[in-house]
Amino acid sequence: MRWGVIVFPGSCDDHDVYYGLKHVLGQEVEFLWHKEILSGDWNCLVLPGGFSYGDYLRPGAMARCSPIMQGVIGFAQKGGLVLGICNGFQILCEAGLLPGTLMRNASLRFTCRHVSLSLEENDTPFTCLGKKGELLSLPIKHGDGCYYADGPTLDRMRNNRQIVLRYVSSGGQAVPEANPNGSVDHIAGVCNEAKNVFGLMPHPEHAVEAILGSEDGLKIFSSVVATCNRTEN
Amino acid sequence: MASLSEQDPSPNMPLPDRVAAHGLNEEEYQKILDTLGREPNDTELGIFSVMWSEHCSYKSSRAFLKQLPTCGRAVLQGPGENAGVMDLGDGLVVVFKMESHNHPSFIEPYQGAATGVGGILRDIFTMGARPIALLNSLRFGSIDDPRTPYLIRGVVGGIGGYGNCIGVPTVGGEVYFDESYNANILVNAFSLGVAQRKGIFKGRAKGIGNPLMYVGSKTGRDGIHGATMASAEFSEEAEKKRPTVQVGDPFTEKLLLEACLEVMKTDCLVGIQDMGAAGLTSSATEMAARGGRGVDLDLSSIPMRERGMSPYEIMLSESQERMLLVVKKGREEEVKRIFSRWDLDAVVIGKVTRDSNLRARFGGLEVASIPIASLTSEAPVYNRPAERPKNQDEIQSLDLSKIEEPKDGGVTLKRLLKSPNLASKEWVYRQYDHLVRANTVVAPGSDAAVLRVKGSKKGLALTVDGNSRYCYLDPYIGGVIAVAEAARNLACVGARPLGLSDCLNFGNPERPEVMWQFFQAIQGLRDGCMALKVPVVSGNVSFYNETNGVAIYPTPTIAMVGVLPKLERHMTPWFKTDGDLVVLLGRSREELGGSEYLKVFHGLVQGTPPWIDLKAERAVQRCCLKAIDKGILRSAHDISEGGLAVALVECCVSGPQMATGVKIELHEMMRMDALLFGESQSRIVVSVEEKHLKFLQELAAKEGVPVNVIGVVGGSRFIIHPMIGLAVEEVKTIWATALENRLNQV
Q1: Is A203 a residue of the active site?
Q2: Does B438 contact A141 at a Cβ distance shorter than 8 Å?
Q3: Cα–Cα distance for residue pair A52/B621, rounded to 1 Å
Q4: Residue A204 CA to its chain's centroid (Å)
Q5: In the structure, what pLDDT confidence band is assigned to residue B485 with cuts at 50, 70 and 90?
Q6: Is A108 on the interface with B (CB under 8 A)?
Q7: Cα angle B23-B25-B31, degrees, rounded to a multiple of 5
Q8: Among A86, A146, A191, A228, which one carries the catalytic annotation?
Q9: Is B250 in contact with A109 (Cβ distance < 8 A)?
Q10: Who's near B392: CB < 8 A, 6+ residues apart?
Q11: Is the pLDDT of residue B315 over 80?
């Protein structure tokens, strides 16, 4: 299968996704420059973390206007898999591919640390190898990760089972101390109705090697690989 | 003294005032007249002013810095370039440097600290290396000073804001609080990059007729006279100098970083240098000096952010995120194409010339013509007088018999752990991205950060250190200890020192007492470096850290880089397994001079710093390293501020998992406070499985290191029999939350 990692001006974790996919998972992966028109055959597109356009206007607000985004939207509408991590999640929300928005952390400070997450849905292409209620340890590092969507939207998302990851304590409880940024309903990751677009604030690409502290991020990338292998066969 | 506005000096100002306002004395002005054979115009006066400023010329320190050892097998580039370069093997090199941004950070903490980070990053990637780590050493005033919370929030915010956005991880650092820095904080930023050995670039202007290209942000009126401002004492008027602080734009620097690394992969470049302090003036001058050539600049072609800028302003602007390139003739279009892909300006602004002059034209008129050497190698050098402060004997005297011993060890420990100097710094480093680039093996909060190097089996260890109270009490010993402790921190993670970079932060060098401190500290650094075989490959000197005539403590900070032969054999400081034995390597002495305990409990910064014997230091480090190499240690932690008791607390509570208890018994015959909180050097506390104890004891005996089993890991209590018995969770809570609580109180 083929992965494409989109490079916006100010993307920072593009190299880390690339490294994890290529050298840890042995995948075929290429960088895609944001000024180009999307072409070629891709199984999954990754919008990486970072500070596209410096986050100077509003995270993701400028990057969604990059030329390549037209192609990304078309790709998603046709059922292609799109994964947005951190800044990539913010871009997907700004582009209207995912519901809701990401606001400044409740603490008003950038926060970098490992968090515990509960895997809420495993019938998505990004989590199919996980068990419902399984706990993952992934790092977060963001200043604008406070997820918000209005009541009716949240209801719809719950009914469609679009809330994929939630911040919980190490014991698996959704207690207030476990919410690192004030996200509504502890939401850390969501997918679209068709479940082929997934955005999350935690960084699975920073949890793919034991020597760097956690391998739990492999679950997400491996799920995508498993999904694609199934379709290709 | 008359003061310059940030713009042009008033032409109406009488000449003597104009000279003084530029920070030049009469003698220096006479030297300018002799050099030029005429009066300088305003632009030229401004150029001399910044190039001869302490910040750019090192006029007070140059003579002394020669004493530091700068050579070694692995040194590929010592001091004198944008950063030092050392060989890592496998065809790879590391490029690193530390630099101060003290004055700007006190005036405008967020932007001052942010541009400090931006500046040090440019120093690294201008050499052809991709920066993979940032560290910083921060000193604030007393936490009770009303300005401190504002300053720390600003500085930490600025460091995070810049480093996080540009995508370079901040993997370590140190934070101290002391009244000495109430009116002059210190912000020292360090960065390290990795490059191919063959891919190193230098700041040289060579090849007559080769074009000079300006790349990056446009030039504005910010930061004019930043270098001169950084070379003068503060007064209450410091606030007025805010316009001399530059404004950072990490997004543009990220583009600049990627574009420069891309250009470096072509063979278009002859030389490259960032425009840092003193902007275009210093980058053009220094490149010409290193290449032994001259430069001819057309200032009208410089991309400008605002209209109506004068040549004076263009030459002295310290607008950030700009670089100067010397390109092979005929390759300009190639360079432009790469920069335009990243939406950046790249403009030819001049050329390399045969003569050795700095020449600038503006609108067809020549606005400056100065011999390069007069601005660099022939700039003034001072052998300033040094004199031991008259009160030095007094501050070194300490009669322990008059110091009351605390009655309750547990209460004393709890109070000490609340000191912001000893409490966890998590509130600070949690605001920094320490993960990006996927190399961080040991994160902030350990003795040293450990990084992997992609393409090599080796690991890198990084630490910054310095204890300014020791330096105040005895700058020589303080200098020795700074080097020794940095190397010890590296040994605790399993790394051998490769080289170091230093930031020497001192008061006004025109005062003999300050020069004495500087001279003594340099000697200490030198002796430490020689004994531990660590070369100094880069660094900077920051003088004039004083306000209204009161200097900061002399503060040399050391950033040391170490190598782990096998990355997977790295060590961490926290206890891991119940039943492991706790072993103390090294000897405790009855000494309390300069300790955090003495300051917190008795309000004293007095006595002599802890005793240090560099032979014993070498031995304990070797013993620790060998034990780690053999794979017999479970943990290793350096004993420093707060002494043995605080080090043991850190072993119990600083790990990523649940806190663990410990039961210690101490039998040494000495004062309880010295035993628990004394800061004797050359000590490391380790934990081992019982079956490895004998091996460790033999290893220590062979190295001549005192070795004592002092306790066992496990349980839910923190016990140092018979003085302390506390619930470990209580200890952890105090230690983990003290800094944040103090900052929230204000």
Answers
A1: yes
A2: no
A3: 45
A4: 8
A5: very high
A6: no
A7: 115
A8: A86
A9: no
A10: none
A11: yes
Q: Is A12 on the interface with B (CB under 8 A)?
A: yes
Given an 8 Å threshold on Cβ–Cβ distance, is B438 in contact with A19? yes
pLDDT tens for each residue of B441-466: 999 999 999 999 998 999 999 999 99
Length of chain B equals 746
Kind of pairing between the strands at A81-85 and A163-168: unpaired
What share of chain B in percent tops pLDDT 70?
96
DSSP B112-157: HHHHHHHHHHHHHHTTTPEEEEEEEEEEES-TTSTTHHHHHHHHHH
Looking up tokens 């192609």 gives: A71
What is the mean pLDDT of the segment spanning B695-716? 98
Q: A16, A110, A206: which to substitute to probe chain B, counting the most B Cβ within 10 Å?
A: A110
* Alpha carbons B438 and A48: distance in angstroms, whole number: 13
Q: What pLDDT score does B716 carry?
A: 97
Residues in A touching B252 (Cβ below 8 Å): 54
Smallest CA-to-CA distance from B166 within B101, B122, B108 is with B122
**pLDDT tens figures, B256-311:** 999 999 999 999 999 999 998 889 999 999 999 999 999 999 999 999 998 999 99
| CB contact A15 to B (< 8 Å) | yes
10 Å Cβ neighbour count for A122?
18
What pLDDT, on a 0 to 100 scale, did the predictor assign at position B4?
A: 45
Cβ–Cβ contact B494 with A under 8 A: no
Q: What is the pLDDT of residue B7?
A: 44
Find the CB nearest A9 among B255, B452, B454: B255
Closest to A211 (Cα-Cα) out of B65, B502, B551, B439: B439
Determine how many CB atoms are found less than 10 A away from the CB of residue B548.
Answer: 9
For A110, which of B160, B250, B440 is closest by C-beta distance?
B160
Show which of residues 212-231 on chain A sit within 8 Å of chain B, judged by CB atoms. Answer: 212-213
Q: Name the amino acid, one letter, at B165.
A: C
SS3 B23: coil
Type of residue found at B142? S
The region, left, alpha or beta by phi > 0 then psi within -120 to 50, assigned to residue B564 is beta
Q: Which residues of B touch A209 (CB under 8 A)?
A: 438
Residues counted in chain A: 233
Nearest CB among A54, A114, A141 relative to B433 is that of: A141
Q: Do B438 and A55 touch (CB under 8 A)?
A: no
A205 is catalytic: yes
Q: Tell me if residue B55 is catalytic.
A: yes
Out of B255, B435, B439, name the one closest to residue A141 (CB): B435
Task: Suggest the residue from A90, A104, A141, A203 to mutate for an interface test with chain B (most B CBs closer than 10 A).
Answer: A141
Report how far residue B37's alpha carbon sits from residue B29's, in angstroms, rounded to the nearest whole number: 12
Q: Are B654 and B424 in contact (CB under 8 A)?
A: yes
Q: Is A174 on the interface with B (CB under 8 A)?
A: no
- Cα–Cα distance for residue pair A154/A166, rounded to 1 Å: 14
In the set B22, B101, B225, B570, the catalytic residue is: B101
The secondary structure of B409-462 as a DSSP string is HHHHHHHHHTSTTTS--HHHHTTS---TTS-EEE-SSSSSEEEE-TTSS-EEEE
pTM for this entry = 0.95
DSSP B238-288: GGGGGGGS----HHHHHHHHHHHHHHHHTT-EEEEEE--TTHHHHHHHHHH
- Report how far residue B556's alpha carbon sits from residue B553's, in angstroms, rounded to the nearest whole number: 9
A128-167 core/surface letters (b: 16 or more CB in 10 A; e: else): bbbeeebbbbbbbbbbbbbbbbeeeebeebeeeebbbbbb
Residue-wise pLDDT for B54-103, tens only, equals: 989 999 999 899 999 999 999 999 998 899 999 999 999 999 999 999 99
**pLDDT computed for residue A231 by the predictor:** 80
Instruction: Give B-chain residues touching A12 at CB under 8 angstroms.
Output: 165-167, 254, 436
